[in-house]
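S1.2 Input.
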Amino acid sequence: MTQFIGTGVALITPYNEDLSVDFDALSKLVEYNITNGTEYLVISGTTGESVTMTSEEKRKIVAFIADINKGRVPLVLGIGGNNTLSVIEELKTSDLSSIDAILSVSPYYSKPTQEGIYQHFKAISEVCSKPIILYNVPGRTSSNMLPETTLRLANDFKNIIAVKEAGNNVAQYLQLLRHKPKDFLVLSGDDDLALPVVLAGGSGVISVIGQALPKEFSQMIRDGLSRKVDKAYKTHFDLMPITSLIFSENNPSGVKAVLEALGISDARVRLPLVEATRGLKEKIAKELKVLGKS
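S1.3 Output.
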């Protein structure tokens, strides 16, 4: 699955003033990423505010992005949840003709055991017609999918091809990298650890900040994959301040503030999230100036 090596970005969903989807801004964002080196796009993930999106909005967004993309880069669609039967139903009824893989989050809120997590993904794997990227994000799910469970799934199901690991836990990354099957991809879900994970043997990242600075971020990951360590780390250190800033209040409010400052989309979010504060926007503007982006 070499198409998922490198930088994927978890796209935001831009909104108009009435909080309807801003398709003009979405078009601009998609084109901006494709032309600046992003390897693939992830639709309807956490950063896309999928939990406050209707099924009809999700369907329209997928069709819209597929039409703009025209097959230029792979597309990954978020389909996951804590109701296994509902996830299966969505997989069966969604038009996945333009989609290259599914990103499926480990069940949240219910706090299942490791066996429950395994059985959840087993059931999904058995009905899914597309490759599956597991998504472990304990800070949001309140349940950590342990490396043993991820590796068990990787070994047992051929269509489970990768994990987006976002536990911000270096030891857990290293366990996965040490024991993973040869062709299984370990993708960083933590922007601040993306380069170290790649240098330790990871295959890339599904990034938040990458969509705002696609040229710099995707080149950093390519340099890491090519073992151009000094060059890659220079970019990593340059991007550290703004990467930290975008997560200081909530995601995606932070990256939406960056995209607003870059003139790509507005910073609006849907409740219960709130827009980035004026103070954060000012800090972001200063850091973009340092990076030569304003």
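S1.4 Remarks. The chain has one domain: 2-226.
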